[in-house]
Amino acid sequence: MSETSEKFIDLVQPAVTNVSPYQPGKPIDQLKREYKVSYVSKMASNENPLGSSLKVATALVNFANQMSRYPDADGHNLRAKLAEFLKIDMSEVTLGNGSNELLELVARVFAGPGDEIIYSQYGFAVYPISAQIVGATAVEVPAVNYGHDLQAMLAAITPKTKIIYVANPNNPTGTLFRRDEWEAFISQVPENVIVVLDEAYLEYAENACRDGSYPNGAEYFHDYPNLLVSRTFSKAYGLASLRIGYMLGCEEILQYISRLRQPFSVNAYAQVAAMTALTDPQFVSKSLRINDQGMMQIRAAVEAKGLKVIPSYANFLTIEFGENALEIYDKLLHEGVIVRPLANYGMADFLRVSIGNNHENSHFMGALNKVL
Ligand SMILES: *Cc1c(COP(=O)(O)O)cnc(C)c1O
Question: pLDDT band at 249, cuts 50/70/90?
């Protein structure tokens, strides 16, 4: 961007000039082009290293002759399936083009210039971006141990506060808050402040918290109508490319969100894929097992090198490399391993690695050995 001329900058809406765009992980093809490496392990975007369910692939092939049709704008069948799966009413779930679309639409529904949106230091980048897009003020609350300080977030509420975004577990840190902490928080948030609980890594967290201390958002939104819970098929279900997520909440709020959503933002293939994915719980269990093994393997290898990690409840591990982090990132790229630098999160000393399959994990650990 910096090299393009800025002929139109004065015409651009003030909110747009303030937006710092989301920085995605480096795509595999780009690394091959730029670094001339042929074998690449992408461990930068928390994608599912098992791919996706074979049942889903079959369903999509069988649906291949439907491309000329517009999708169901109401997402009826998938919403019905999700309602059955979660034992809720269909009116309490809405779909999005990835959960990202829904996270952003909440900001468009509830906030504008002069309003405040609260999120945590090291919180997911999409939250401050959502605030910027609508011209609201993003209020960052300092983290504790790289995780949400929910009591400090409560204390940051002012009459201008419209939305609080929290992620559990958080990305990029993998930190988690438990049931007791969550209940002390949500019960004290005023009813006129919307809380968005982002559960993109729900499946991994429930698996990691075997004592039942993970506060599943679906159990809370009936008691707290100002609570919205967002989830995705991009991670444990392995459907990142199709862009499909959903949000749970009270019918009234979901209807306001639906007013802003493009009528066909969720394509028919995403809807069919998600419905089918829900019929293959074995794929998810296998993904969680693979993740457990990879997490132990990578964490042990990294700690054996004397490096510190942030204990993670998701499908990635954030590692402290110190001031050489960016150099190590670049050296790993030369070895064909893509991880995620975190300087844009104010964590310049850290790199985040997504847990891969056996091959990818070995590739990463071998490359790390070489590089360090
Ligand atoms: C990956 C991720 C999402 C999911 O994004 P989609 O748009 O559903 O692919 C949402 N929130 C967090 C914190 C994430 O890491």
Answer: very high
> Which residues are CB-neighbours of 165 under 8 A, at least 6 positions away?
103, 117, 118, 119, 123, 124, 127, 130, 196, 198
Closest-CA residue, ligand 1 atom 1, reads: 200
Q: What secondary structure letter does DSSP report for 317?
A: E
DSSP 225: T
Structure tokens at 202: 């729900």
- Top-confidence residue, 65 or 24: 65
CA nearest to 208, candidates 236, 246, 166, 248 = 236
CA distances from 58 to 81, 120, 276 (A): 19, 41, 9
Q: Tell me, in angstroms, the distance from the centre of ligand 1 to residue 157's CA.
A: 25
DSSP-assigned letters across all residues of 22-91: --PPPPHHHHHHHH--S--EE-SS---TT---HHHHHHHHHTGGGTTSPP-TT-HHHHHHHHHHHTS-GG
pLDDT of residue 2: 52
> Which protein residue has the closest C-alpha to ligand 1 atom 11?
200
pLDDT greater than 80 at residue 119: yes
Q: What is the pLDDT of residue 369?
A: 96
Give the length of the chain: 372
CA 210 – CA 214 distance, rounded (Å) = 8
Atom of ligand 1 nearest to the CA of 198: 11
Q: How far apart are the first and last CA of the chain?
A: 34
In this prediction, residues 116-145 reach a mean pLDDT of 97
What residues line ligand 1, using a CB cutoff of 6 Å?
46, 98-100, 124, 167, 171, 198, 200, 232, 234-235, 240, 245
Q: Alpha-carbon distance 112 to 353, whole Å?
A: 35
C-alpha–C-alpha distance, residues 212 and 112, integer Å = 38
Name residue 230's beta-bridge partners. Answer: 198, 247
Kindly state the tokens that stand for 308: 């510190």
Distances (CA, A) of 294 to 23, 172, 174, 314, 360: 25, 18, 15, 12, 9
